[in-house]
Amino acid sequence: MVMGRRPGVATASWPITAADLAGLAGQMATALVRVPFRRPWSGGSSPQHNLAVAVTRETIRSFMGYASSLPIEEYRSVEMVLDDLCGVVLPPVVRRLDVRTERATIAGVPGLWYRPSGVVSRGTFLYLHGGGYIGTSPRMYAVFTAWICRLTGCEVFVADYRLAPEFPFPAGLEDVVLVLEALLSGGCDPGRLFVAGDSSGGGLATSLMFAMDRVGHRPIGGLVLFSPEVDLRFNRPSVSENAERDILPWNIPTAAYLHGRDASAAAVSALDQDVSGWPPTLVVFGGDEMFRDQIRDFVDHLDRSGVDVASHEEPGMFHVFPILMPWADASRQAYRALAGFVDRHLPESPEMGSPPAGQG
Predict the structure, then answer these.
(1) CA nearest neighbour of 153 among 350, 357, 359, 354
(2) H-type helices in the chain, by residue range?
(3) Backbone angle region of 252, left / alpha / beta, with phi > 0 → left and psi within -120 to 50 → alpha
(4) Exposure string over 220-238, b if 16+ CB within 10 A, otherwise e
């Protein structure tokens, strides 16, 4: 469930929410007015592609900046409206991809299953959505996770883990550890299980790798990361150098999630930590994103540590571009990289059946 509907989470009144939504609409309209003055047609690709990148960048950055300026109870109310909207608009798109959606609760953690229609799943993804550890919901990721399901032939469970500031670290990590343990103890073949995530969800996926010593099982099939937050210190040059070209706000907030935790600790930042023994890993990111340098360093660190790592850096693209611009050629390249990675690391003979009891 979206955070605003969890027990004990404060939300704003409808009049205030309506005013906030009006303010958001005005802010995004202003962002679109700015686009022509930023030479949106210029760049290394076609004018049409460059314009689409510029429009997406301006609107998403404006949305993030406005939303993060709201008091938390107002933020939660706006988030609920957007989640409801996604619940109406996105399901028809998912069905056209031959993917079916089911609500489920695993180990007390709610979420959504995305499964290929009419066929047995080849494997299982545990997907951890992004949102800066403070926002979004599984339903907002419906199209992207449906594409993962369609491209790989795997079922995808998007965990609705707890978010900050109401539930700071380690609440979200505790949730996803429970889900992973339940999937494995319920009969999921570790060799056919992939953990994936984007942005903060990618960072949480790396935290889960460090927590896996609490789970006794064979190595999982792989780890898939889209623009992961692998170092919450944000001290690499690209954080400032790419600020103008990325969708992220220049002042990326982490205090609500860390809650006093050391930003360099392995539990929250994977860079420079001991990653020996990690499963095969795919990392997808953009050349124009603020996290570029830390992700490059992370990929190099995995490689030096003996991890089977593949990376796909797309020049001229911003943070989580495959999610925000799924129609773009750059995103199709990322999807092909994902499909190829899964094909390489799945065993040849699938033995996937129906999900264990209580997980469908």
Answers:
(1) 350
(2) 14-34, 47-68, 72-89, 91-96, 142-152, 171-185, 200-211, 238-241, 255-258, 292-304, 321-324, 329-345
(3) beta
(4) bbbbbbbbbbbbbebebeb
DSSP per-residue letters across 289-351: STTHHHHHHHHHHHHHTT--EEEEEETT--TTHHHH-TTSHHHHHHHHHHHHHHHHHS-SS--
- Give me the half-sphere count of Cα atoms (radius 13 Å) on the Cβ side of residue 160: 22
d(CA 301, CA 316): 24
Mean pLDDT of successive 10-residue stretches along the chain, which has 360 residues: 92 97 95 83 74 89 91 97 96 96 97 95 97 95 96 97 96 96 92 97 95 72 97 94 91 88 89 91 97 98 97 95 93 96 83 42
Phi and psi of 194, rounded to 5°?
A: -120, 140
CA distance 216 to 232: 28
